[in-house]
Write a structure and sequence with these properties.
The chain is of the alpha+beta class and about 375 residues long. The protein has six helices and 16 strands. The chain has two domains: about 190 residues, Glutaredoxin; about 140 residues, Galactose-binding domain-like (Jelly Rolls). It starts with a helix and ends with a strand.
Length: about 375
């Protein structure tokens, strides 16, 4: 082969490689099967609202979903923000299934979806896990079924979409209008009336923009009427976040042996026996190990799991729980811990301060966190 021919072929190969790199970077094709990354282009909408130019100066553009790890309630088909622009009002809900704050928000989301889906509302749950067990598709699918969720849920196990939105909380909602602008961002629980009023406003804007009728938009407000009565903070067992640990050494990974003092402080975690403090949970070693916590709340929840399965006995102020039993506590004041999830231990008749003691009746309980309501 002549040198000139060889050089021409080399140049062609280099051009093809550079072109391929440019194409892949431009498209940002992700492993999850959906194109993602960056702001959703407003040009993808067929029409714009009359207020688009003014609103675009005030509100940020929505971001696309990035590399989903799975889809639930979609028939296995991908869902994207860009495919819904100009057709729907979109509510994104960042959540994770063992979070009690998320669980208390779900009844509102379910009610809104049922009430407004035919009027143009699409809800997408972005399931971003706090713990590794929440990355398992079967676990998330079971939770979606348990909570009666009918809207699409996208698994964001690697935090790609979470990071794209600079999200920081569970739950956190984003309302996206017909133009693809984020018109409202709500952190945590509450503000339900304000959010629903914004949904109605954006659905009216959608109707006006598309030339349809506002007569189909339901009126009134959903009222689940749930009251939260908790003064005690969420308390973690892992070494990275066990700042409320009252005995032993906080912030240290590995095995420790704990002795529970006779006098304990409120809102402080006390372990008894030998525990291995890991990066997401603390695991006990043998039957008779204990957990003690003095709380001020109405409801006590416990995120836990056990690979072999283990029974725990729950005491309230030193005696078995009777009328104050949570939904997971049996008549013997016990719970069989197995699947990784949130367990409801206690529900007080009225909020108050009490001492919770858990006796673990075998090894390998993985304790993640206490949450309160």
């Amino acid at each position: 082969m002549k040198d000139s021919t060889r050089n021409i072929l080399l140049v062609i190969v280099i051009i093809c490689i550079v072109g391929a790199i440019w194409y892949l970077d431009k498209g940002k094709v992700n492993p999850g099967g959906a194109v993602g990354g960056g702001v959703v282009a407003s040009s993808t909408t067929a029409v714009h609202s009359a207020d688009y130019a003014a609103n675009a100066k005030q509100y940020p553009a929505a971001k696309e979903l990035i590399s989903p790890d799975g889809y639930i309630n979609t028939g296995g088909q991908p869902v994207t923000i860009s495919s819904l622009l100009g057709k729907k009002v979109i509510l994104l809900d960042f959540w994770t299934y063992s979070c009690i704050n998320c669980q208390r928000t779900i009844p509102y989301l379910n009610a809104w979806y049922q009430k407004y889906k035919d009027a143009g509302l699409e809800i997408i749950g972005i399931h971003t896990p706090e713990f590794d067990f929440e990355k398992v598709y079967a676990n998330v699918a079971a939770a979606v079924d348990k909570f009666g969720i009918k809207y699409p849920v996208v698994m964001d196990s690697n935090y790609y979409t979470w990071n794209e939105y600079n999200n920081e909380y569970w739950p956190e909602e984003y309302l996206i209008d017909v133009d693809g602008l984020v018109r409202e961002n709500n952190i945590g629980e509450g503000n339900y009336a304000e959010t629903e009023q914004t949904i109605q406003k954006l659905l009216a804007q959608l109707d006006t923009t598309l030339g349809t009728t506002t007569a189909n938009i339901p009126t009134g407000l959903v009222n689940i009427n749930e009251t939260i009565n908790a003064n005690s903070p969420e308390t973690y067992f892992d070494y990275q976040r066990n700042t409320n640990l009252g005995n032993g050494t906080a912030g240290v990974e590995g095995v420790q042996t704990f002795t529970t003092p006779s006098a304990i402080d409120p809102d402080t975690l006390y372990l008894g026996g030998t525990w291995n403090i890991e990066d997401q949970f603390a695991e006990n070693s043998e039957a008779g190990d204990t957990i003690t916590f003095k709380y001020d709340a109405q409801d006590v929840y416990f995120v836990a799991s056990s690979v072999p399965g283990v029974t725990i006995t729950v005491l309230r102020d030193g005696v078995p729980v009777t009328t104050e039993a949570g939904s997971d506590l049996n008549a013997q004041s016990q719970v069989n811990i197995k699947e990784p999830r949130l367990y409801h231990l206690i529900t007080e008749q009225t909020p108050g301060t009490h001492t919770l003691k858990i006796i673990v009746n075998g090894p390998k309980l993985d304790a993640y966190t206490f949450t309160f309501g």
